[in-house]
Amino acid sequence: MDRRGVVNGNSHAHPKRAAILYLLTLMGLCLVMVTPESRAADLFIETSRSAFERIPVVVFPFQTKQSSGSLGFSPADVLRADLERSQLFRIEKVNGVEELDGASPKSAFIQRVSGSGVHVSIWGVLERRGQEFVLDARLYEGEAGRKVLRKVYTGSETVVRAMIHRLANMIIQRYTGQTGIAGTQIAFVAEDDHGKQLYVMDYDGYRPRAITKSRTLNLFPDCSPGKKFLAYTSYQDENPDIYVMDLTSGQVRNLVAFEGANITPDWSPDSNTLAFASSFDGDSEIYTVHAGDGTRLRQLTFSPASDFSPTWAPSGAEIAFSSDRGGSLQIYVMDADGSNVRRLTFEGGYNTAPAWSPDGRWIAYTCRNTKGVLKICRVSPDGRQPIQVTDAAGDHESPSWSPDGRHIVFSSASRGRSDIYTVHYDGVGLERLTSGNSRASSPTWSPWN
Fold first, then answer.
1. Structural domain that includes position 289
2. Are strands 387-388 and 44-45 parallel, antiparallel or unpaired?
3. What is the pLDDT of residues 354-372, one digit of tens each?
4. Which of 176, 200, 229 is the last residue before a domain boundary?
5. Are residues 278 and 417 in the same domain?
6. How many whole angstroms separate alpha carbon 446 and alpha carbon 359?
7. Which tens digit of pLDDT belongs to each residue from 245-302?
8. CA distance 85 to 285
9. Reduced to 3 states, what is the DSSP secondary structure of residue 159?
10. For the chain, what is the domain count?
11. Residue 192 to residue 169: CA distance in whole angstroms
């Protein structure tokens, strides 16, 4: 059977159309050439911080026993970074940590620290017991330094960082009512000797590992809401088709195999439907299929222009996408059935790669500012004044939201390098996650761990 024009074995014969230049554009190889240069209107760069007082916290150096200090990292530093990265805590330093020795800290010392204005003090012991590690953590709070919680985590050496992330999430949940993102993961594309491969790393950039090893191009990863599957575009069969990987078993299946470019997959909130862009019928349009077996093909857009990069609203009722139907590349929103299409962005002549935040309040996207440089912007779904989020050097592309809707991961290219960065949604806390010689791009943040 001819594989062209097939969605998981269902025949839809169409003549071949060339879409490779368009695909290369989305890959960032000729990004600034998509639309004619136009003067971008001014974007507001948000400088105000969220209206809350950060919680002062002290994380004491963890006590270590029986060679548990040979992990290659400081457990206390990992916890401090988790809390500080949340933008909800202010890490404080104290003197006299030499008094922390033994099974528990001296109560007089804890009271002195708490009385200095520190709201939360965290003390822990990390001990090796045979083949396992035991993390014993205690929380003290208030001016009296009262012990309010004790948590014990047990696991192998390979999950010690995961135990610390769990502790951080518990602290964040306790004092803010929000679920922490420590322990989530980020998938991305990186170049190696075999082409462009998909990688996964911890949310703080730790432990990057390849999950594809085919000698070809693998692009546009998107993780399902249940964190079980990863959809992506691959040239595995010499055409840009959409594949789905089972992240538990590693099994891969070809879900969409139309002739032309099949790209930018995005999972619906219930994981049952996959939206994507395809040029199999000429110009690129937005389609959906059943995510389980590739049936129920439905075309949502009908425009002589190019429509691509769909992103579902968390309600599942709407889809945002990119289109040049108005003469320049802009963000549009439509109902999930393709009706009620309306333009969302009007500032500037280049806005693309939308990503809807998990809380539904914002749509992040790649924008070109007045200097002709690509940055990350966001706008509310009603199209109110767009806000430029990032302002650091380099071109910033491919935004994706953290599960709590407070952070954005993106790629930044400058001076021949491309790395993955995260930033708080209001533009503070910029952090580089990747390093080395590989060019990293197209990040996607996994759902809750």
1. 6-47+183-445
2. parallel
3. 999 999 999 999 999 999 9
4. 176
5. yes
6. 15
7. 999 999 999 999 999 999 999 999 999 999 999 999 889 999 999 999 999 999 999 9
8. 39
9. helix
10. 2
11. 34
